[in-house]
């Protein structure tokens, strides 16, 4: 699809970067286009060179953190942020997304597969337009 590889992305929690409190979506519930719960934003996956959020890390299921499933959702899927984070997809679509293992560092192919699955061009593609607020640091 593209010729350029993405830069290394990092979790906000693993960096020394911060988000303004009023713009921070971590801890907010994520809901699908029907208002059904998808999970909770656990962390933000960022591009430290451009200071942009690329993915929301969303945790769902489990009990007290045990058995919780992690998903990465491109910020491009977010349509609104209020008390919740609203995404354009159905909950089942997110649940069927390519598996994310937070203990592994995803490769460019994984990111490209993820963007393709959600139907968005990857952030390194020619002509990519970053979504507007609230996804900047």
UniProtKB/TrEMBL annotation:
Which BP terms from GO are recorded?
photosynthesis, light reaction
Q: Show the Gene3D superfamilies listed in the entry.
A: Photosynthetic Reaction Center, subunit H, domain 2
**Residues annotated as domain PRC-barrel:** 24-85
Q: Name one GO cellular component term.
A: plasma membrane light-harvesting complex
Classification via Pfam families: PRC
Record InterPro entries: Bac_photo_RC_H_C, PRC-brl_dom, PRC_barrel-like_sf
Q: What residue ranges are annotated as transmembrane? A: none
Q: What is this protein called?
A: PRC-barrel domain containing protein
């Amino acid at each position: 699809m593209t010729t350029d590889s993405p830069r290394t992305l990092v979790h906000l929690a693993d960096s020394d970067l911060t988000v303004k409190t009023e713009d921070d979506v971590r801890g907010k519930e994520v809901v699908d286009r029907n208002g059904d719960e998808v999970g909770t934003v656990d962390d933000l996956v960022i591009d430290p060179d451009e200071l942009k959020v690329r993915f929301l890390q969303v945790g769902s299921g489990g009990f007290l953190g045990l058995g919780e499933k992690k998903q990465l959702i491109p910020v491009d899927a977010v349509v609104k942020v209020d008390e919740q984070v609203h995404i354009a997809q159905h909950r089942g679509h997110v649940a069927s997304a390519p598996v994310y293992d937070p203990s592994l560092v995803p490769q460019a192919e994984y990111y490209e597969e993820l963007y393709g699955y959600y139907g968005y061009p990857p952030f390194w593609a020619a002509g990519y337009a970053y979504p507007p607020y609230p996804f900047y640091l």
